[in-house]
């Protein structure tokens, strides 16, 4: 088994192992897969004199010609040096091609395979993890520690400090995709260029998806029974062009998430522990309202609310003209139910 443990990933990627010339990068964080692939490919091609650099293959193209991957990896570089091949897996099966490659591993080539989320013990992942000629590295969403390191690295490179509350605000808006996180931090650094420090105001002004933040405000205030705040956020969202069915869809997802947390509470966990175990992690600004909601609702009442919201969502989709009125009525009923809880 040559699956690389999380603690060993960074060290593994800093060196090229000629005994394991095939590297499989996979996982739900496509941005991290891409970032690690770029870095490893650049390292593998660093000493090459080949002006054409890296040979790039598309998985869907080679699925019908499994021998092509072996041929590309076995081709002698025109100007000498190591052959470097990049394979990005698509929607078609590339297992036969990789299987053929592992049967006759290249002696002077590096092959980097990028894939999506792969189930343990099956297909391409099982094949590479079981081979002595391959490395398999899973790429999952960044932890708080990873995000903190990324923020430190990028702010240090830019020569600007970041306030503690700004860091906490920023970390709550990042994490699902490494390249997206890099992009948001880079945008923040550009916005704050020339300032002595990055503040929470800078973060709120420029980072994150404003529509997502607006939806969170609607969802959290409704389930916390805060009608005025919910109404204000809803009016602002609709004035900016957000459809009513999109809002109700977000509220339905919020009800489902709260239901899971409430089940944990009713199973014996404290409200605080249930929130700390939420995945994805809750932004610190949302926690007070979510705590209030968890103390106001039971799992049974949340399930009933979800059925009512589903009906409102269906009605809003059937009649776009009436959608805003239907959504607002459902949200006021939700907030009223929260206060009665």
UniProtKB/TrEMBL annotation:
GO function terms (MF aspect): DNA binding; DNA-directed DNA polymerase activity
UniProtKB keywords: DNA replication, DNA-directed DNA polymerase, Nucleotidyltransferase, Transferase
BP-aspect Gene Ontology terms: DNA-templated DNA replication
Record keyword Transferase present: yes
Family matches, as Gene3D superfamilies: 1.10.8.60, 1.20.272.10, P-loop containing nucleotide triphosphate hydrolases (3.40.50.300)
Reaction catalysed by this enzyme: DNA(n) + a 2'-deoxyribonucleoside 5'-triphosphate = DNA(n+1) + diphosphate
One cellular component (GO) term of this entry: DNA polymerase III complex
InterPro entries registered for this protein in UniProt: DNA_pol3_clamp-load_cplx_C (IPR008921), DNA_polIII_delta (IPR005790), P-loop_NTPase (IPR027417)
Major enzyme class: transferase
Its EC number(s): 2.7.7.7
Family: Belongs to the DNA polymerase HolA subunit family.
Name listed for the protein in its UniProt record: DNA-directed DNA polymerase
Organism of derivation: Ancylobacter tetraedralis
């Amino acid at each position: 088994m040559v699956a690389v443990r999380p603690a060993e990933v960074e060290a593994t990627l800093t060196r090229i192992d000629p005994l394991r010339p095939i590297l499989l990068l996979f996982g739900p964080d496509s941005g991290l897969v891409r970032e690690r692939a770029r870095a490893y490919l650049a390292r593998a091609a660093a000493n090459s004199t080949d002006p054409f650099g890296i040979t790039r293959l598309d998985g869907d193209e080679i699925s019908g010609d499994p021998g092509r991957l072996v041929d590309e990896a076995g081709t002698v570089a025109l100007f000498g040096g190591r052959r470097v091949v990049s394979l990005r897996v698509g929607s078609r099966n590339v297992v036969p091609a990789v299987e053929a490659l592992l049967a006759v591993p290249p002696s002077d080539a590096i092959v980097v395979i990028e894939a999506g989320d792969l189930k343990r013990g099956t297909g391409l992942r099982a094949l590479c993890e079981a081979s002595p000629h391959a490395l398999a590295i899973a790429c999952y969403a960044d932890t708080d520690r990873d995000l903190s390191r990324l923020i430190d690295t990028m702010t240090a490179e830019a020569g600007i400090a970041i306030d503690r509350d700004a860091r906490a605000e920023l970390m709550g808006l990042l994490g699902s995709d490494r390249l997206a996180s890099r992009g948001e931090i880079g945008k923040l650094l550009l916005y704050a260029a020339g300032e002595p420090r990055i503040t929470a105001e800078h973060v709120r002004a420029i980072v994150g998806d404003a529509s997502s933040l607006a939806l969170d405000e609607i969802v959290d205030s409704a389930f916390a029974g805060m009608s005025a705040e919910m109404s204000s956020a809803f009016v602002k969202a609709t004035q900016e062009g957000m459809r009513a069915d999109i809002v109700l869809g977000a509220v339905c997802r919020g009800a489902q998430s709260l239901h899971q947390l409430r089940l944990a509470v009713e199973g014996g966990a404290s409200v605080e522990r249930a929130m700390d175990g939420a995945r994805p992690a809750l932004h610190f600004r949302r926690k007070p309202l979510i705590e209030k909601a968890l103390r106001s609702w039971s799992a049974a009442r949340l399930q009933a609310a979800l059925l009512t919201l589903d009906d409102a969502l269906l009605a809003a989709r059937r009649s776009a003209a009436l959608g805003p009125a239907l959504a607002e009525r459902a949200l006021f009923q939700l907030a009223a139910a929260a206060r009665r809880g």
